Automatic annotation (TrEMBL):
It comes from hydrothermal vent metagenome. Residues 444-472 are annotated as: Disordered. Pfam families: VWA. Residues 444-464 have a biased composition (Low complexity). This is VWFA domain-containing protein. Residues 45-231 form the VWFA domain. The lineage of its organism: unclassified sequences, metagenomes, ecological metagenomes. Keywords: Membrane, Transmembrane, Transmembrane helix. InterPro entries: CLCR, VWF_A, vWFA_dom_sf. The keyword Glycosyltransferase does not apply. The chain crosses the membrane at residues 480-501. PROSITE patterns: VWFA (PS50234). The keyword Transmembrane helix applies.
Length: 521
C-alpha cells in the first residue's frame, strides 16, 4: 500500500471535479482530474463488485481477477475506504466500507478477494448495483469520491426471463438516476463478448465512469491500473525500453511489471548493476508475485537509472515524491475550433518550483492516445516566465482519449496521465438549394404616401424549392393524363351512340318503302 502523510489542500489548489463541458455547440469534453495528484484529490470510497457466478470458472479459469483487484487495493492510500462485494443470485458484502488506515486493514481487504468463488447460479447485476449504492450513498456528502468497479461475464439473469428483463429495465429507470444523484461513477469490466456489453457500457457512460472489455484474463490488472490512474492520478516515472531514472526527491516507488508468461521471472537492475528478484529479502522492498504481473514497492530507491528485466511492455512506475508534476486544463474560448489548453509545472512542498536549473534542459512532450489506439506525440516548446509548459491541442474525433505529459532530462523524469471523453454532435443535414425565382419590383410605387403602419418592409415570399416544383409538375402531368383518358372515354361513348342511332334508323326505312310505289296497271 502506498502510504504517506496527507496534508490539507491550500486554497490556491482548490479541486475542480470532473464535469461535462459544452464548447460552442461543437464538442463535448469530459476531463477527469483537474488537479492530478493523489494527495490533492478527495479520498476515494470504492466498492468492488465481483461476479461469482458459475460461468466465471470458464471465463476466468486462473481467477486472475483476484490479484488484479489486489493490485488496485494495494495502490490505495491511507485515507481511502474500500468494500468488496460478491454477487450471483444476490449480492453480499465480504467487507463493508473500511478505511485502509494501516497494514491490518489493508491485509483484511486483500484477503476478502480470496473469498470470491465461482459457484453461483445466476448473474444479478441489479442486486449488485443496488448494494453498491447502499454502501456509497453517503460518500458524496462526506466529501469523498465514490466509485464502483463492476466486473461481470454475463447477462442480467435471475433464472426467469421475464423477471430478468424487468430488472434490467429497472437498472436504467431506477438505479442509474440514483447513481447520478449520489455522484457515483461506475467503472465496468466485461470478461467476454457474451457479456451484456450494451448495459455495462451505458452504465459507465451515464455515470462518467469507464467501460473496458477484458479480451483475456491476463489483461485484467492493466484495466485496474488504468482505473487507478484515472481516479487517483498518481505521480509517475516515464519508462523507455523498461528503463527509468530515479532522483533524490523520490521517497517511494511502486513498479507494475508485466510478465511474458506464467513462468516468467521478473528481475530489477538498480544503478549499481546487481540485479535481484522476488527472492531478495530487504525491509525496504515488498514484492508481490502473480501469474500475469509482479508489483514491487521500494522505499528510498537509489538514485540513477533502473531497469526492469525479462518483462513485457506497458509497465508502470508510480512514485511518492517531493517534486511533483502538476497539470491544469482550460479551454480557448476565442478559437473558432474547440481547443484544449494544457499547462504543466513543477511543485515542491506545495510551492511552485521555479528553479531554472530544473527546467533548463528539460524536454517536455504531450503524448496522445486516440480513440482508435493510435499514438501521436507533440513537443512542448512554449515556457512562460512562471516556468509553465503550455501546449494547445484540438481533438477531432469522438471517443475516449488518453494523454500523458512527459518531462525528461538526464537526471530527472516525471509523467502525468489523464483522459477525456470527446463527443461531437451530429452535423445537420444540408438544406436543398432554393430554385431561382423571378421577382419583379415595382420601383414606381410611392411608398412614402403609405401609412406608417404599412411602411414596414413586406416579408419576402418563401421561394419554391426544387422538390416542390417537381411535385407541381407531377400533379399537372397526372391531371392531363386523367383529362385525356376522360376525353377518350367520352369520344368512344359518343361514337358508339351515333352508330347505334344510324343502325336503328336504317331498320325503320325499308318497312315504309311499299307505300311509296305506284299501283300496277
Amino acid at each position: 500500500m502506498i502510504t504517506e502523510q496527507r496534508q490539507a489542500v491550500p486554497a490556491t489548489l482548490t479541486l475542480l471535479h470532473p464535469q461535462r463541458l459544452l464548447f460552442a455547440g461543437f464538442m463535448l469534453l469530459v476531463l477527469f482530474g483537474q488537479a492530478l495528484h493523489a494527495e490533492d484529490k478527495l479520498p476515494l470510497d470504492t466498492v468492488i463488485l465481483m461476479d461469482s457466478s458459475g460461468s466465471m470458472k470458464q471465463t476466468d479459469p486462473r481467477q486472475l481477477r483476484k490479484p488484479a483487484a489486489k493490485l488496485f487495493i494495494s495502490l490505495l492510500g491511507q485515507q481511502d475506504r474500500l468494500s468488496v462485494v460478491s454477487f450471483s443470485a444476490k449480492a453480499w458484502p465480504i467487507t463493508f466500507l473500511t478505511q485502509l488506515k494501516n497494514e491490518k486493514q489493508t491485509q483484511k481487504a486483500l484477503r476478502a478477494t480470496d473469498r470470491i468463488s465461482h459457484k453461483g447460479m445466476y448473474t444479478n447485476i441489479h442486486a449488485a448495483l443496488s448494494k453498491g449504492i447502499e454502501l456509497l450513498k453517503q460518500s458524496d456528502q462526506l466529501e469523498r469520491d465514490p466509485i464502483i468497479i463492476l466486473m461481470s461475464d454475463g447477462q442480467m439473469d435471475v433464472g426467469n426471463t421475464e423477471r430478468s428483463a424487468e430488472l434490467r429495465q429497472q437498472i436504467f429507470e431506477t438505479l442509474l438516476p440514483q447513481l447520478i444523484e449520489h455522484n457515483i461513477k461506475v467503472y465496468s469490466i466485461a470478461f467476454t463478448q457474451a457479456s451484456d456489453q450494451q448495459l455495462l457500457q451505458e452504465i459507465a457512460d451515464t455515470t462518467e465512469g469507464r467501460y473496458a472489455l477484458a479480451a483475456s484474463d491476463d489483461v485484467l490488472h492493466k484495466v485496474f491500473s488504468k482505473i487507478f490512474e484515472q481516479t487517483k492520478q498518481p505521480d509517475m516515472l516515464p519508462l523507455h525500453e523498461n528503463k527509468f531514472v530515479v532522483d533524490a526527491s523520490i521517497n517511494e516507488i511502486t513498479i507494475i511489471a508485466n510478465k511474458f508468461s506464467d513462468t516468467s521471472q521478473i528481475y530489477l537492475q538498480p544503478p549499481t548493476g546487481e540485479k535481484f528478484n522476488s527472492t531478495f529479502k530487504s525491509a525496504k522492498v515488498k514484492w508481490f508475485v502473480s501469474n500475469s504481473f509482479d508489483m514491487i514497492t521500494i522505499q528510498k530507491p537509489a538514485e540513477g537509472e533502473w531497469k526492469i528485466l525479462f518483462s513485457d511492455d506497458d509497465n508502470r512506475a508510480y512514485i511518492i515524491t517531493d517534486i511533483k508534476l502538476r497539470t491544469n486544463f482550460s479551454f480557448n474560448t476565442e478559437s473558432d475550433v474547440p481547443e484544449l489548453i494544457i499547462k504543466s509545472w513543477f511543485e515542491q512542498n506545495e510551492k511552485t518550483e521555479d528553479s531554472k536549473d530544473l527546467i533548463k534542459n528539460m524536454k517536455v512532450v504531450l503524448e496522445i492516445e486516440h480513440p482508435d489506439d493510435t499514438l501521436e506525440t507533440f513537443k512542448v516548446n512554449n515556457v512562460n516566465e512562471q516556468g509553465e509548459f503550455i501546449i494547445h491541442y484540438k481533438p477531432d474525433a469522438n471517443g475516449i482519449y488518453g494523454a500523458s505529459i512527459i518531462a525528461t532530462s538526464r537526471t530527472f523524469q516525471r509523467q502525468q496521465t489523464f483522459s477525456f471523453k470527446n463527443t461531437l454532435p451530429d452535423r445537420p443535414k444540408p438544406t436543398p438549394a432554393p430554385a431561382p425565382v423571378d421577382v419583379s419590383v415595382d420601383v414606381s410605387a410611392d411608398v412614402s404616401s403609405q401609412p406608417a403602419a404599412q411602411s414596414q418592409p413586406t416579408p419576402e415570399t418563401e421561394p419554391t424549392t426544387t422538390d416542390e416544383t417537381e411535385k407541381d409538375e407531377n400533379d399537372l402531368t397526372t391531371t392531363l393524363i386523367y383529362f385525356g383518358v376522360a376525353n377518350v372515354v367520352l369520344i368512344f361513348l359518343g361514337l358508339n351512340g351515333f352508330l347505334i342511332y344510324r343502325h336503328l334508323k336504317h331498320r325503320k326505312t325499308p318497312a315504309a318503302e311499299p307505300k311509296a310505289q305506284p299501283p300496277e296497271a
